[in-house]
Amino acid sequence: MAGRRRRGIRLRELYAFSGGRSPAVAGGYSREVHCNAPGEAGGHGYAGNKISTTKYTVVNLVPKSLFEQFRRVANVFFLVVSCVSFTPLAPYRAVSVLLPLVVVVGATMAKEAVEDWRRKQQDVEVNNRKVKVCREDQAFHQTEWKNIQVGDIVMVERDEFFPADLLLLSSSYEDGICYVETMNLDGETNLKLKQSLEATTPFCEEDSFQRFKALIKCEDPNENLYSFTGTMHHEGLQYSLSLQQLLLRDSKLRNTDYVFGIVIFTGHETKVMKNAMEAPSKRSKIERKMDKIIYVQISVLILIVSIGSAFFGIETKKDINGEPFQRWYLRPDDTSDFFDPNKAFLASFFHFMTGLMLYGCFIPISLYISVEIVKVLQSTFINKDREMYYEEADKPARARTSNLNEELGQVDTVLSDKTGTLTCNSMEFVKCSIGGIAYGDVETESLEKNPHHQDPDYWGYYKDSHCDQNNSIKGFSFSDARLMNGEWSKQPHSDIIQKFFQVLAICHTVVPEVKNESTKILYEAESPDEAAFVIAARELGYEFYERTQTSISLHEFDPRIGRKVDRTYKILNIIEFTPSRKRMTVILRNDEGQLLLLSKGADSVMFDRLSEDGRASEAKTREHVNRYSEAGLRTLVVAYRELSEEEYREWNEMFEKAKNSVSDNRGDLVDAAADIIEQNLILIGATAVEDRLQKGVPECIEKLVQAGIKIWVLTGDKLETAVNIGFSCNLLRKDMKLIMITLDKPDIVALEKLGDKEIIAKACFKDIEKQIFNARAEVRMAGSRDVLGLVIEGKSLTFALAVDLEKSFLELALGCTSVICCRTSPKQKALVARLVKKGTEGTILAVGDGANDVGMLQEADIGVGISGVEGMQAVMSSDFAIAQFRYLERLLLVHGHWCYRRIAAMICYFFYKNIMFGFTLFWYEAHASFSGQPAYNDWYISFYNLAFTSLPVIALGVFDQDIPASICLKFPSLHQDGVKNIFFSWRRILGWMVNGVCGSLIIFYLSTNIILPQAFRKDGSIAGAEILGATMYTAVVWTVNCQMALFLNYFTWIHHLFIWGSIVSWYVFLVVYGSLPTTISASAYQVFVEACAASPLYWSVTFFTMASALVPYFLFSGLQTTFFPRCHDLVQRAHLDGLYEHLIRKTIVPPPLSSSSS
């Protein structure tokens, strides 16, 4: 026995009567599942339940991983060079050329192999989990997940994960409900309610499935987590299936002792596995530019190798002309093809191949892995930033990817959602309109900041001094003595008021919950709006306290007897709210036997559905709705109608047929059926709830605008509401001229009533085209001090995003300081993000908190998710996650600035040090008649990037800080350095390259002209190639590390350790490597201990050449900061001198938004 069934109900969501739209499924509806029939799954070719999430297998690990590594051009180059190093053409030993490539590629492959092994272990653990499955003997046995097949009946117990996608048959509750935690799927911690069909609820014991047979026909496997369509044929009857009966793999059973379910999808055909794909690949602009620089480096390498090969060919041909031979030491009369004067062209080609290896150090092989390490460490600092930790919710900032850190410092445009992003998404019921009369005394936050706030004629009718209530109830900030404490029953239209409260208390999907420790009822709602409505109804006399599958019960104030009574309403149908429908409807039967339809929805759809007799208070209600919207409140219109038995019966047959259909247009059929009954409504009134701004939003937006960042708000709210929120959050200002683009015009409305869609579309397109044309002209005519804001509603946006108008619309929007798009759908948000991204060269950041923002976050260059109350879908699809919008200021202006500057400087420095090192080789080879003779020992070259110069550049990328965080926030205009890409422009990159070339020339010239002409040792012997090479190499190591020390703005002990430690490690290497046998150390044998260390000339040349090589940087930096200072230089100087006020007076910082200038 499974255990005693539990009585009672603790519903958290109600979908059982849902008639919402199901998204179309690409795969069709061909799946058939034979329940409790072992072997049928194999006959249909359905996948097994064993899963594998690994990237590699034992067979393809090496080839696939190598393919991934050699997609990078630098690795391909070094692979070619390594192959050539095994030929006689190589100037170095093959092992010294191959080692750096093996280290870099091997380290990356090892990292991926370890990560994949961990995934493999997780797969084994999951596949070997146990669950009870009904087998051939009709008994339940513990079975491993990997052995489950489609059609099996499984029993899942409390706190266990579902092993596959199951169809719920029954549970430990009598009405077949269960609670599911879907954190692994969508990140949400609140429990979801699932409910079985009434026909399968009796199958609640282990021995009750002996004769259970059924055939399920449903949609094919797909990735949509929020839809499921199918039918079940059982005992000659057909039952409609929906998402309410589907238990998804990797979700967990909670607060329920056990459930029984039929396996529908297994393994990689389950919805969660269908969704197991990588997020859209995003690469930063700097990373893409870095690839181009690598190509430039390779081009420079090929150029200098070609120059050297050409000169070598010419000189080789000369060797055969005349006596004596010009280069007698090469024995041109008796030589190989490599130096044969008779085959000068072939010798030149061989020299070209040698040169590719000789100058391989031009290409920084460790650049990619170093940048990857730095970005991961930068992300750690973002995650640990206490200034972005939201203590109330215990939520720190999270860098969910490290690829885009530097992009934060280059953001040009921010696209933001409103509800839950700028606002708290915690609704307060503040006002209402009932029967054409406005109620509510509370002044809202948005009202206080509205430019018309001080106009008593504009707002005075909201005021009423009847009551002054101290609000302490979350979700209820309403105060009006005419309605409070049962006083509404004394109003002239008390019957309408009563109906209004009934709609609020009944028309919803809220579920009541009573905590064990108290009798207080808590409400679990799908949205904060619904919770606010139910709480308002409760406070005004209509307390919703119980819900079952077929009824809703209220403690209802009866004005006839003057006290509360218990009433139960039988729920017949619930037609849920969807973004396309914009309304919700409940059909019920009251205790008097009346059939009632209660509906609430957006004014844009509700007013058109009123009957002629139901419009008595329409004019006043419209006026109130508009005023509420202008005050920044969210509004819904409330209406009802009575139904006859015959009308309802006919409609219900049509509705059930639509719900039971198994086809792609099921949603359209359901919507069409719902549309038929939702007509001829009688208007009751309207609600107004306030969603207050999050803390710090106005100040954050002001800082971002001062930083030169354009801000667009994309919201589903009404135009008036969006505009008022714009004023509240400083996005719009009193001195700003607003350009409104809307189709809410009498001529368009008149056309819409005719119903010809083609004519309406053409007229709307032409109207929007004209509005955009006129607005663009207005932007061009506006003076430099004129500040413009653009507001466009969703219907107009549909036409503005058309192919013929999108460029004009974008040009108009970019000419405005602020842009607000209202009444936008999730798809429109994504399309706007795509348009701005493609139409501008700037970096686009999108920020949102809900599932409707996911498309926008993924389309933008950077997606930032707000971990608010709408679940975690946005966060899970984002690149960065923060708890509050105000943290965006620090994320962009502080971390963005630091990461951008660090990465840019790091990459520039990488190329600088490699060019300096590579060109010393080139100058030496030119000195040696381009003979292919290397200036340095081969192991010197191998360890240059791996040991002696790698750590300081990593420290630069992680720890350097040009200015403190407080100064970044004090001078937000510094953000423009990243927007204009000042620190990683081609001019700056080439400047660092030229610095490297100049430094290499100075080092080579001074070293050769000081060391070679005179005695090097005390015994009078001169320096050989090995001593010259060691001296030049020492000078290079000192120069590039001291250059780093000069460039740094912020020293830590780590910087000192890495910079001076790298120099010391070079000397340690010289001693250790030079002590090895000559077969290993070759030209480095005892070169430091016996020759260089004892020579004053070595030390003097080292420090003199190092100081001289740094002179070009000194001169350029000094001249630039003294005579051509940039904003960044001035701020740094002010930071050192404390002259902030002087800079502010010089207008480095833009004026506040309250001023008249932009």
From TrEMBL:
Alphabetical list of Pfam families matching this protein: Cation_ATPase, PhoLip_ATPase_C, PhoLip_ATPase_N
Stretches assigned to the P-type ATPase N-terminal domain: 33-95
SUPFAM superfamilies (alphabetical): Calcium ATPase, transduction domain A, Calcium ATPase, transmembrane domain M, HAD-like, Metal cation-transporting ATPase, ATP-binding domain N
Location of this chain's protein in the cell: Membrane
Origin: domain of life: Eukaryota
Membrane topology note: Multi-pass membrane protein
Keyword Transferase appears in the UniProt entry: no
Residue stretches spanning the membrane: 293-314, 344-369, 903-924, 939-959, 989-1007, 1027-1050, 1057-1076, 1096-1116
Example GO molecular function: ATP binding
EC numbers: 7.6.2.1
Needed co-factor(s): Mg(2+)
Keywords: ATP-binding, Magnesium, Membrane, Metal-binding, Nucleotide-binding, Translocase, Transmembrane, Transmembrane helix
Binding site for Mg(2+): D417, T419, D849, D853
GO term, biological process aspect, one: phospholipid translocation
Residue sites binding ATP per the record: D417, K418, T419, E530, F577, K600, R634, T715, G716, D717, R823, K829, N852, D853
Catalysed reactions, as listed in the record: ATP + H2O + phospholipidSide 1 = ADP + phosphate + phospholipidSide 2
Stated role: Involved in transport of phospholipids.
Family the entry assigns: Belongs to the cation transport ATPase (P-type) (TC 3.A.3) family. Type IV subfamily.
Identification of the protein by name: Phospholipid-transporting ATPase
